């Protein structure tokens, strides 16, 4: 019998398959009854699951990162697929094929690795090319760099995601730089694109469900990345000091703002370009993945995206014209509190909708009184 993948589950389907437990949280219903929130995954995606009964006994049978045989019923709730679990049993690792459970880049790792080598060969700056050749010659490093995801949840969340994202930035760099003429160090930008997230090879664990390592939680990928680059720079005889500073500045500033976890804000043209291209590629990939997850929904709008704090319209004007549905912000379900500081940037802005009254402020200033 063929494996049932998460991406193929439809509303009201009977679910009977083995999944990897990505998250496991005990919670309490309004009536005081405990229940279990699960996030199940395979290589095609992930899905929310609920266990409503016998949670105390079932809680002892499996943990996060275990493989479990699940039997239950699928349903669409608030535009999102979920599975109500009737039975769940832990499955030994030796009985599963790991390739069925970890999502992979749609691009071939072999193909992307070859492209990486080609990019390095085109570098005209001897010190930057030598720096990248040192990275390419490190077998252990290359094994991690080519397999790491780019993030845990936001974008390129699959094996090979870091390499795919980095190569995408190189293509964007080579497209953007000619538009602005001379005065931009393209080689520096290309190497910055390849190395800006290099610290993620040690920040994240990805042998099972993607998560952060102790080093990732304590240091973060920016600090780890600067250390990796500094170590290789010291191995290149005569590497220009200023060039080293400019490259490390790109790693330190690529998140753009302090509130987004950036130790420095971009202060060079190259760092500024990298910041915007990185942000664009990350967001486009993340939004596309969010839309793709909802193939079971007939709505033309996605569910609320917690991190981007908005709904996304699925249409693009290329299909037959349909009436645009309206989502009322006032009736949208309340979102849980967000822990990530970068996601709280809208917290101090009130949602005034269509109730803005531009003359009201002037009226309050008594400008209309005689």
TrEMBL record:
Q: Which residues form a coiled coil?
A: none
Identify one Pfam family in the record. tRNA_anti-codon
SUPFAM superfamilies for this protein: HD-domain/PDEase-like (SSF109604)
**Keyword Nucleus tagged:** no
- HD domain span: 162-283
Which InterPro entries has this protein been placed in? HD/PDEase_dom, HD_domain, HDIG_dom, NA-bd_OB-fold, NA-bd_OB_tRNA, YhaM_exoribonuc/phosphodiest
Where would you find the membrane-spanning parts of this chain?
none
The name this protein carries in UniProt is HD domain-containing protein
Q: Mind telling me which NCBIfam families this protein's record contains?
A: HDIG
**Alphabetically ordered keywords of this record:** Hydrolase
User: Source species, please?
Assistant: Pelotalea chapellei
PROSITE patterns named in the record: HD (PS51831)
